[in-house]
Amino acid sequence: MCLGSALSTVDAATDIYVVSTYYQSAALNTQADIMLSLIATNMFFQCTTLFTQHGSNIFSLKGLGEILITFLFLRPIVDAYRVSTNHQQSDAPMDSLMEYLVNKCTELGTESIPGCILQLYVASESTETTSERKRSAKQGAKRRVLLFVASLLVVSLFVVSLLVVSISVTRSYS
User: Fold this and answer.
1) Which residue among 82, 108, 152, 171 is least enclosed by CB atoms within 10 Å?
2) In this predicted model, what pLDDT tens digit does every residue of 24-55 receive, in sequence order?
3) How far is CA 148 from each of CA 55, 124, 145, rounded to the nearest angstrom?
4) Which pLDDT score, from 0 to 100, does residue 117 have?
5) CA distances from 155 to 3, 92, 117, 165 (A)
């Protein structure tokens, strides 16, 4: 769990690097905006989860610290630590495992999977020059099919991981 959380944090850092790289190319500004909006959407939903957990206490020093953890992309690591130490919060509607699962599913659904598909699309489109595209329409079609297959694999991995998580949660609560 901790290794996956560390990878999730590294993924967020590489997403920021990709956004900055996309902004350096005028042709990729739209893709950079999309990637940035995916990151912002993830942050919004994780902050919504924090508000659900902490209620009006979100504006206390502890709550602001939680928001800072989210904005520094450390939320997966902190959540995994809390799950591994069986951290209990008083008056919280979710336990640490449920909070971890909600944040992880939010991250996968709003940032990781769409970002992966977007980066695969950009990579498949940017490897050819205009003259090469005219000469190799068949190869372009093959690349689009490969992109589609890769996208399906990523989405199916997400569905399988949701099933595994739901089975794990069901077993731990029964």
Assistant:
1) 171
2) 988 888 889 999 999 999 999 999 988 888 78
3) 42, 11, 5
4) 83
5) 21, 31, 9, 15
